[in-house]
Amino acid sequence: MKQYTFYPGCAYDSSGLPIRLSIEATNPLLDIELLELEDWTCCGCPGASISELGGLAVATRNLALAEKMGRDLVSACSCCYRNLLNAHQIYTRDARIRAKLTEALAAANLKYNGGARVRGLVDVYVNDIGLKLISSKVKKKLNGLKVACWYGCHQTRPFGPDDYESPQWMDWIVTALGAEPIQYPLKTQCCGGAELMSDKSMVMKLNQKLLDNAIKHGAQAMVTTLCPLCFTNLDAFQRHFNSETGKKFNMPIIALSQFMGLAFGLSPKALGLDRNVTPVKKVLEPYYSTRMEARV
Amino acid sequence: MESTHAKYIRQAKSFVDQVAAEPGGEKINECIQCGVCSGSCSTVEWWEYTPRQIIAMIRAGMKEEVLSSSSAFHCVSCYLCTVRCPRGIKPASLIHAVETIAEREGYRPKTKALPLYRIMRGSMRRGRIWDFGMAFTFYMKTNPIDALKNFPVFVSMTTRGRMPITPPRTVKGAKQVAAILDKVKAMGG
Q1: A164-209: per-residue pLDDT in tens?
Q2: Which residues in chain B have their CB less than 8 angstroms from residue A57's CB?
Q3: What is the nearest CA distance from B34 to chain A, expressed in angstroms?
Q4: How many CB atoms lie within 10 A of CB B150?
Q5: pLDDT by residue (tens digit) across B100-157?
Q6: Lowest CB count within 10 Å: A9, A103, B44, B96, which one?
C-alpha cells in the first residue's frame, strides 16, 4: 500500500464529487492510500490573478502543513497542483519573495522550510503504480472505444512533468484499459476555468472548438483529467452551451478515474457516473458488467 | 529643467520598475518582442492589446492605457505563453502582475472578470471555497439575467449533489488564512 498526503481542493466535495467518488472507489484496487491533509485550506488560486502574493501565501500555508507529514503531497485537481507547486518553486528559488512569504506566514505562526513534494494523482498512477498493475486490474477491457484524452492546462503546464505540447500519460492509461486514444490537435486546450462566469461567450467558444475538434478526429467520448474545473465546464455546461448556440453536442465527459473504474468492473453508481450531467449511458452501457444496474 | 524626452524616459522606467517589482513581472526587460506569447494565447482574439503589445506598452510607459484596458483580464491562465516563451519570461504571471497593479491602484477596466476575482479572493477567507455562494454573489452583482439563463445548469448540478447550497463547514485554518491575507495586504501585496 503506497501512502500519500492528499490535498483534495475545495471543488472536490461539490462540482468534482463524481471524481471524488471514483478516486475513492479505484484507490484500494491500485494499492493507493490517500491520507487527507488535516486542516487544509484553499490553494490560493481564486483571485491570485489580482493578488499574486496573496495567492502564493495562502498556498504556502498548505505546504507548511504538508511538509510536516513527510509524504508526497498529492492533488487530483490540476489547478491546486499547479498553484501549490508554483508556490513551492517560487519559495525555494526566489529569495525576495521568500522573505515576503515568510513574513506573511508568520502572521499565522507558521513557517515553511521548502520540504513539500507536490505531485499530481495522474503522475502517481503512471510512475508509482505503473501501467502494468493498472492493466492487471482490468476486468472488462474497453475494447473498441475511441476516446479523446483531454489534458487541459495545469496538469502539464507550466510544470509538467508530462510533455506539455503532446502529453501522453492519460493516453497510456486508457490504452492499458483496452480503449483507443485518438490523436487530435487540441488535446491540451484550456477549458476557460472560472472565466466561465465572467466571460461566457469566450469560454463557450473554447469549449465548442474543443468538442468539435475531438469529434472530427473520431472520439466517441472524452476522458478528462481529475480536475473538477475541466470536468465541470465540459460536462455540466455542454447542454447549456448548445441551447445558447444552437449546436447539438452530446459528448459523454468521463473523468479518468471513472474510466479506470469502469474497466476495473466497478458499478457506475460507485464511480459517480449517475452524477455526470451529460449522459454517458449511450456510449458506456456495453461496458457495464451485467450484474450492475444499467440505468445510469 | 527636465526635457520632455527625459521625462518620458523617467515615466516609462518607473512603470517598468513597478511591474518588475511584482511577483511574475521580474523579467520584463528580457522580452525580445517575438510574439510567441500572443500567437500561443488561448483567448487572444478577445484582447484589445495582445500580450506582446502589453509588454511593449509597459516598456513605453503607457500606464494609463495598459491599466485601464480590459485586455489582461481575458487571461485564462492556461500558461501556453509561459511554456513557450524563448526568454523564460512567464508572460502569464506578468499579465497577472498587470491585473494586480490595476486592481490595487483602483483602475476599473470594463470587464466582469475583475469583480469576479475580487469575490473569489474574498471567498478564500472562509478557508474553503463555497461555489454556490461565490457564483450567487457574482451574478447578483453583475448579471442577474445570466443567472436566470444558467438556472437549468444549477438545477442539474444541485440535484446531483454537485452544487451544495449550504456552505462547507468552516475549518480551523480559516482564521490563519484571513490573518495571512491581512498581512499580505498590509505589506502592500
Answers
A1: 999 999 999 999 999 999 999 999 999 998 888 889 899 999 999 9
A2: 180-181, 183-184, 189
A3: 19
A4: 19
A5: 999 999 999 999 999 999 999 888 888 998 989 999 999 999 988 888 888 999 999 9
A6: A103
d(CA B126, CA A109): 18
Task: Give the separation between CA B69 and CA B73, rounded to whole angstroms.
Answer: 8
- Residue range A139-287 forms a domain whose CATH class is alpha beta
List pLDDT tens digits, range B67-85: 999 999 999 999 999 999 9
Please check the confidence at residue A111 and state whether its pLDDT lies above 80. yes
CATH of domain A2-121: 1.20.1050.140
Asked whether residue B72 falls in the same domain as residue B119, the answer is no
Chain B residue whose CA is closest to A244: B149
Cβ distance A194 to B79 less than 8 Å, yes or no, reads: no
Who contacts A105 (Cβ-Cβ below 8 Å, separation ≥6)? A57, A60, A61, A64, A111, A112, B180
Closest by CA position to A152, among listed A167, A131, A173: A167
